[in-house]
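Worked example

This section walks through a single chain of length 521. The input is the sequence exactly as stored; nothing has been trimmed or padded.
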Amino acid sequence: MFLSIDKELAQPVYMQIRDKIVEMIRNGLLSAGDKLPGTRELATQLGVSRKTVLQAYLELAADSWVESKPGSCTYVLDRDAFTGQSNVGRRDFQSEGRRGDLEILPGQPDHEVSQMDWGDYSIPAAWFRMPAHYQNWQGSEEWISFSRAIPDAKLFPFERIKKVSSQMLWDPQAYFFDYGNPQGYLPLCEYIEMQQARDGLNVADGRNDFVVCSGFQSALNLLLTILLKPGDMVVVENPTFNAIINLLEARGIPHRGIPMEHDGMDIDYLERLVEKEKPRLLITIPTMHNPTGVTMSREKRQRLMAIAQKHNMPVIEDNWAMLLGYEGEHQPSLKSMDGGGNVIQIGSFSKAFLPGSRVAWVVIPSDLAMTFIIAKRSMDRSDSYFLQTLVHEFIKKGYMDLHCRKVDRIYKARRELMDEVMRQHFPAEVSWKRPRGGFSYWVALPPGYSSKDLLREAVQSGMDFAPGNYFHVGREDSGNFRLSFSTLNQSQIRQGVRRLGTVIRRVLADSANQKSNRSAS
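Given that input, the structure is written out below as tokens.
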């Protein structure tokens, strides 16, 4: 494979290698299934270190251009066939036997046919996900992203997963790949029930049932389907997890935001809103709230439950961090405090284990459980029993506890380092509260400053983060932003925070100078 680089360019060599290979794939010089040279071979050919080539291959793999197999080689992927890609908007129908994008069928009149206008069906999605800012980065320094609050893929327990899956496939069972019970793999349901009982949940017959679902958003979507009627309003924290807002916006569901305080949502505000506007449903993240990192106090949890019971209002509790450890006083889940049967809890293995496995669960009052299962069966029949069995076998062998303890230590060290270097490099006008756990810090700029404007400056210095617009109801501008550390090593955290601190100081100084000049004139 002929490939050239220029070591005099400002662009990092590994990015040059990545871009050249992408260009060759796009131009048809490399096809799906073609084998790339080994890292040692290509490094020798280009006169660079093997680590540089490996970094380029990792970038290609992260963007689904290639697949590297441990102990084997690196192959070009078929991106159109790859499940994470889409050919929407890229099809070329200008072929023989077609007119424009319409096929001429026998007996069809040979004149222009009016086209369906799909404009009214589109979903505004400007804030649904972060743009790929790194694709335009030409600087010499490494691109560093604080934008994604997800597990670090480098910590996935691949060897143990391989061991468990190999044992399963050595003696495969038909139920691995058959349609399963829409409630989920029974042993996994029983494990979740046992864990919830330890957390204080009432698991007596007729109180609560457990259903496995394909991820948090699938579970939430199902619940919204059975709990809401057209025009019903939903209440959420403001800010809140952007995936919740995305789903509500995509479905056109009216929603209102409750301001966040240092110890959870403003319960007085919630009480007034419920009295006045009669919302149908509340969605809350009371423990390690995303994005603020706040854990709701016990007093507020008790008041929230009293309001829900008084107004016969369902509450959906997102307990995303249940399998991750956190510091400080343990607060009971809302579901464990649910004497009146108002709370439905969603939990997930995604943030502690493998996000792509899409294994989550719903703890739901028994009176509603059958309705939920019927709705689930009508929409997706059943979920992957193979993945559910794999997760359960991983738990049964003790691997899940070992993995969670390991990643907890690593994420805690990164969280502490993040706090330390922000104190060193951020100006005193910028504030944040150290979270007890989770993957992120919620940082506040001084009043009058926009995190969206700061992001534009940060991108020019080789980094990004998630501005407050992603998490606020109505996508309103905000002086807050989320800095996530979960996927970054210590060197990246130190370098990224140092760079961001420089950008913030420059933005604050430029603003002060502009105000001074206006005053002088």
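What to look for: The chain is about 40% helix and 15% strand.
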